[in-house]
Amino acid sequence: MTVEVGRANLVGENEDMDQFPIGMRILAVDDDPICLKVLENLLRKCQYHVTTTNQAVQALKMLRENKNRFDLVISDVNMPDMDGFKLLELVGLEMDLPVIMLSAHSNTKLVKKGVIHGACDYLLKPVRIEELKNIWQHVLRRKKPSAKNQNKRTNGNNTSQSVEGAKGFPPAISTDNEKPGKRQKDQDDDEEGGEEDSTYENDDSSTQKKPRVNWYDGDENLHRKFVAAVNFLGYEKAVPKKILDLMNVEGLTRENVASHLQKYRQYLKKLCSEEAQQCNMMGAFGGKQTSFRPMASLNGFSMTGIGRLSNATFSPYPSREIVGQLNSTSGLSLHGIASSGMFQSHKWSSSLNTLGKSHPAFLLANEPPHTFNGISTSSDHIQLHRDKCTLSFKESNSINDASSFTVSTSFPDARMAVGSSSNYDFGSSHLLMLRGQKQQIQGGGEFGGQSSLKVTLDNPEPLANGTGVSNILGHGESNKNWPGSIQLPKFSSNVSVTGIYPPAGMPATYLTISSAQPDNNNFPIGFPSTSVDSSSQLDLRGDTQCYEELIGSVVEAMNGRSKQQWDAAKQDYYGNHSSIVRDSLVSGNSVVDPLNQIANQNNAICLENIGSSSTNQLNDGAPTFIHDGAEISAMDTWMNYDGKILMDQTKLQSGFANSSFNSLDELVNALSKQDQDQSIQINDEFGFDAQSLGSSCI
DNA sequence: GTTGCAATAT
DNA sequence: CATATTGCAA
């Protein structure tokens, strides 16, 4: 039989495998003594070495006592003391032995369940000896990859799946036969014969070829992990090794990641330039906001494992830039630069040179960053001029200082949101996205539609890398719903976003974003900033309404055990201004659609992530992400790394349904009454401190 | 030792 | 052809 030939060839060199599968050690488990006896006899006829037990618990005990005592486990599914699936799972977790499930029921669901839980085979009772004769193949298959790595896997770890690990399978789950839809090149459907021979030849020699990494295959989608890792680290800081560490995917190499990163960057570059073109095409007039939503692509997690990168779903923008998106009706077409162009204060990005080259955002108009038409980034501010529109950024304070910046606008219906991710290198890695949106303005409101938003970063201190960071990104846990734009900086910072009233007399279309010390006057004062070196401002003038929206989010890992997302703040301003306070110090994160907040009126908004105080564990990261409203709306749920649903958009839209916001609600309400000075003690288990929050508010 | 880029392989 | 892998210089 070819099987025998193949087997002989394959195991021929392995001394102890000469006799294989004769004497293969099998643990048979079945609560029914009769069935067990029958099974035992059949197995013995196959010349296996059989050990039996009628208790799953006992079986587990035996297995644990000596993990190398058995080569394979055959277990009944239905057992009184322990579900066969449970046993299966435990075995898979603890010893990575092939497990064959036995059941009298051919229920597809059961079979599926068994396979999903890692069963390498699922046999129906009564079992025929013909079936048992072949079960050794499961042992062989599993041992095969380890043969050459025998030394490495003596620990009993489940490293035999190194190859499979590259596919993103969690080690705990046997990967032998599942995922029918998945095509893995290293996996021949026929388990033996010539295929094995050729494989063997390759394995044996140094010419063994690496299995190709399937970044997009499979439910867990390595690319998602990749994106998450990149976002976690921040675009510039995302280097292959760090990404690899974060991803923590077995079998994946740094080279794999480097390659993928390369491709990813190229993609972003391309995407951005394309978008720039589109933006240009769109022009200031008639461009339909919804047809081009660069930020929509921030949701990298909507990408499904097709192996194709979709513009709509990839996550192209490094979040740590300041991005000004002036689009649409605001008519902010800057000297031919896309009206939705992205701009960055060079100080916020430590290296424009690099960015200009590597960051698509700066490739707009195919010009070096500092030579953008009308945009100057050579100093600490960027100015964009087009007609009445001016955008300028200036970076302010030193990196080590707490910083704040204020965003203000007089656009009647501007929506504003500010978030922060702390990136030490950037001094402040505020994420800022300014986006013009088409929206009806209903009048200027009592303040003439002016608004401002202050963002304060109180804790730019770098955080030690969380030891648990590696757990954050998945390990097979469901994270497919992560927003792609989540960023996980290495340290957190306090962020406060406060809606404030703009100074009277500001131009009707005026937006300022300034950086200043917390103690400074937080108010944007005209533009451009008169202080060249230490204040930053962004002035935006347009004759039409402009919305700014920036959402910051913080995702945090607490000792690697959990992730927290701090969210984003948005402010809808128009006439009255409403700001959204979000804090997901607990499990939550929240995103509030500004559109739904319009009703909330005159509230000054304070948003602060206080958790980063040294006393709590939020220091591991303070990711930020930006979404535009539509994007956020598109996300149904966000999940934390434990697979818990952190936020349900619908709930959020209907109000801060998330319980974690209850206190915040109160806080916001209180704050909205301009009672910041009062201490509102709302402490949660995470040390959320309303008082400090209040103090951060203007 | 890493990284990023370019050449090469699939 | 797109993408993964490999090679190599910085």
Automatic annotation (TrEMBL):
The modification 4-aspartylphosphate is found at residue 76. Residues 147-163 have a biased composition (Polar residues). This is Response regulatory domain-containing protein. Belongs to the ARR family. Type-B subfamily. Residues 176-186 have a biased composition (Basic and acidic residues). Residues 141-215 are annotated as: Disordered. Residues 187-204 have a biased composition (Acidic residues). The keyword Transmembrane helix does not apply. Residues 25-140 form the Response regulatory domain. It is found in: Nucleus. Keywords: Activator, Cytokinin signaling pathway, DNA-binding, Nucleus, Phosphoprotein, Transcription, Transcription regulation, Two-component regulatory system. It comes from the Eukaryota.
